[in-house]
């Protein structure tokens, strides 16, 4: 890889991860809540930046789930990322077989026209392919 | 000896004169016009115009803080001349070019509303959202408690539809209305 010549300045060239919420912990919590909601409801409205961040995490989670129920790492990942424990069952038993034939890209991200009330934020819809 | 005496005698007078001048300088800078030396202190007055008004109140306090005012003679930036309306117009109208015209507005083929090209149609999305809300309410009624996500897939059936061969082990959500045109059955 490239040299990390300690660019701690106000330049953010090439940074892939956005800064959401109050800090890194808060950002992870936010994304975890969104992932849980997506697995529960299969279609989520959220601000576009959060949905974009969440998309990568969700797809990697499904890849972990595809490894199988018995896999210890997969189970630990699912345990961390899904706060509602019945959704772990749903992830392994419903979503893994559903996305088994597809190699990747299990989510769809589309922009909604009307932004939020008063703050006019750019909203987006994330949904799992396969519909309710 | 005589020269020394002659030199000594004007010195204390000079020093006294210098002291009195310096005292007048210190006190003369602060009150300003009322000191009477308006012409040599003209530019100093223009610089310290804001200090004119509070001067009768702040006289005693200012005499203690004279060095701080002398240091802060550099003052803040201020416009020298009024900006003419032509200059103002050039600044306000040119570079930002006054809200760019949007060319990416199209007509939605389904409902005929206007939409941006890369964005979903608002009306159609509102319809989808309302329908999903009703479906989720049905799911909620079927599940009962808060954390009862089922471990099987779900199928939504509308009026007059029967579960087919593919919908074997899935749980069925019934909706007592006609199938909406945009909802494609897999």
TrEMBL record, chain A:
It is found in: Mitochondrion. Keywords: Mitochondrion, Ribonucleoprotein, Ribosomal protein, Transit peptide. The keyword Endoplasmic reticulum does not apply. One of its GO terms (biological process) is translation. One of its GO terms (cellular component) is mitochondrial large ribosomal subunit. Gene3D superfamilies: Ribosomal protein L17. GO terms for molecular function: structural constituent of ribosome. It comes from the Eukaryota. It holds the Pfam family Ribosomal_L17. Belongs to the bacterial ribosomal protein bL17 family. This is Large ribosomal subunit protein bL17m. The lineage of its organism: Eukaryota, Metazoa, Chordata, Craniata, Vertebrata.
